[in-house]
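Extended Data, panel c. Modelled sequence:
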Amino acid sequence: MSSKKSLHVKCYNSFMKITILPYTDACATEITDLHHACVHAIDPHIYSREQQEAWAHTPPNYPYWVKRLALKKPFMAMVEATIVGFIELEDNGHIDCAYTHPAYQKRGVMSELFAYTQNLAEQKGIKRLYLEASIVAKPFFEKRGFKTLHRNEIKRNGQMIVNFSMEKMLS
């Protein structure tokens, strides 16, 4: 699946039309800003402001994200001309990032992105999906059949951040 056309998928849910597209370098700034907005929109009772800042610096490190995204090549969820979410699938089944813009959360964006990603993984013969889910993302992945392997405490920029190693076996 190397051409853009074969990756262009339109999904209609009860709220809006979501189009899934492959990453292009021109989208790096918008995705970086989306990541930053997502992290900083988390309830500070779940992840403190200090933890959020350790996770996603203000201002974002754009050069780092340009390089990262060029390597990871995420799939982007678009509503009209706006990137509303993204997900990364590595060849070994690792989902490294999965984020939905705060204004579009609970509207089916990540459900569509994940369904697309799982289908692609199955087509590629990947037998296992795995990830490190935040406290807020964990319920989403549990509802899609992921099992928690263990709780992690990651020290990032002087802050302890909790996440969960999870996996899902594919048939």
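The chain is about 35% helix and 35% strand. This feature is highlighted in the accompanying rendering.
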